[in-house]
Amino acid sequence: LKVNESALTGESLPVEKKDCDIKEDVPLGDRINMVYSGSFVTYGRAKVLVTETGMNTEIGKIASLLKNTAEHKTPLQISLDSFGKKLSFIILVICAGVFLLNMVQGQSVIRSFLFAVALAVAAIPEALSSIVTIVLAFGTQKMAKENAIIRKLQAVEGLGSVSIICSDKTGTLTQNKMSIIDLYYNQESRKAKDSSMADSMVKKLVTSSVLCNDAAITKEAQTGDPTEIAFVSLSDSLQKGKTKKDSATEIIRKKYPREEEIPFDSDRKLMSTVHTIDGKRILITKGAVDVLLQRSEWIEERNEILALTEEGKAKIQSQNEAYSKEGLRVLGFAYKEIDKQPISIETENHLVFLGMMSMIDPPREESKEAVAECIRAGIRPIMITGDHKITAAAIARQIGILTDGYLAVEGSEIDGLSDEELQDFVESVAVYARVTPEHKIRIVRAWQQKGKIVAMTGDGVNDAPALKQADVGVAMGITGTEVAKDAASMILTDDNFATIVKAVENGRNVYHNIKKSIQFLLSGNMAGIMAVVYASLAGLAVPFAPVHLLFINLLTDSLPAIALGLDPHAKDVMESKPRPKKESVLTKRLVLDVVTEGGIIAVMTMLAYYIGLEHGEAGTAGTMAFSVLCLSRLLHGFSCKSEKPVLFHKEMVNNRFLFGAFFIGLIFLNAVLLIPGLWQVFQVTKLSPQLLGCVYGLSLMSLILVQVAKKIRE
Description:
- By secondary structure, the protein is an alpha/beta fold.
- The protein is 49% helix and 15% strand.
- The longest helix is centred in the C-terminal third of the chain and has 41 residues, at 497-537.
């Protein structure tokens, strides 16, 4: 009986079941005397005794874990919640102060109140939530084009904060198909990729592997055991281009058709087939190397049949063990000439040992580079798999996850650890093998309790609780179960670890763009608040009418902020470390930038106000201040593209959305200033060409001074 338990254990190969006693406590994947609800019988038949039902089954336990696992807010959600409360309180205090100052200066209660309300509307970036949503939505579009489908919008930004990626092995880091790595013949090991069918021993070994084999590969599909498919793939690749209609394997099988067979048996650990080759009736046997050696009396070396000595057997067994320590699966091949009598199990003796092949589910070509990029970006990749420790460790070493100083452990090793002990233990572990769903949740939770943002990949039902527990759950789109997809925040349509790294890069860029929008909104609003507070303290007439503030809020806030959120993505974001989980959006650097840049725009605004007073009355001064604040904020969008100066740099002109927002704002502002019919509506006065020149000059000066300030801070 063979059962596919991949949904529960993550192990892709069917598990052979036996009627036996298991005394010790072993992982779920090693309980070969048990079958589980939710798994599939792939071979054989058996009568089984029901021991648990409902929520007490293994799949029921997973359902309980899934039900009791809570989802987490992303760092941006937490930060924006806190940021919004603090900002609202500060602005309301300022507005209350401005209201009182206006009252003291003799303004009416209604006028003072309306102005305070207008100031609050202009100062509070109420468009921020919609801007964040729009930016995240565009981020999901970009990720979808790169094989990452976002199910939960906030996961886009959450990916940018990830500091730990817990990844499954099979199919995510590996190709999810067995591949022949080494051939052993003539008492020597050789790489399969360097072999040639011109070598007669290679030809015999490969021919034997596809004749004693039930797998088939067509243009439409691959059918059969993954191990046998690997033999067929090797045969076709070594003889590629030499056939027209049929594959190399099909030609071999048609030339030497199967006449008899003894199917694989778990007790014998062998499979045998009979073929007529060169006029001789040949029995080909494949199976476990140690079993074949016990049944072999001869060995073929360089086309000569020699006696197989104990020394020769020891050498073969030593190489077999060396392959196994590297996490490779090994099968041996033998043959003998037989008479025309029907074959039986007894026929599988007195064999001629031919050689053996080692295989593994190899890493994806891009996995090693993706892991290296993770490490450069300060992200710790960790492998969590249901496979055996030796195999998992071998793959992890190849791609750079398991390095000196880190451990590979089995899930059972963390059973005796408390949650506090596990938090210390996880620091030293890079590979977890033979894990259960409970182990996965505990590992994820341990990292979260250490203040890390955790992404978790998975495809089986057993992965669903951990996917839900993780800050960002990543399900496989090809091999993933519906339960895993439903619990995840993101689905990979190509089941590729490298796609996660691309998604992290996108997430980081999205967060940086959101910060640019926040910096733009706050610095512009800060300029308006500073100008109003200064005018109130200096005993000047209020520089802006409520309609001015609303115009600024509608045209110079939203469009440039959205455009900044769509700024082209930068590659260098992966050169920095993940930001701390508790880091606020309002960092010291951002606050300093907001105050400095807002102060520069406020100075230019009030300078325009004084110039207006000298050339007219308060109405002209207010129009000048309104115009400079409006145009300065439109220009300020370009300054917010980078922490570094961007004037005369290619970054200045690489965002067409920002140019569009700037020209839309500029057209509307000029319409208000130049069309007489709008003067009364927007409470502005006619400006002479000289004063209009001052508006443009002072606005441009604010851009230049902000760039100078950035240069000084470099």
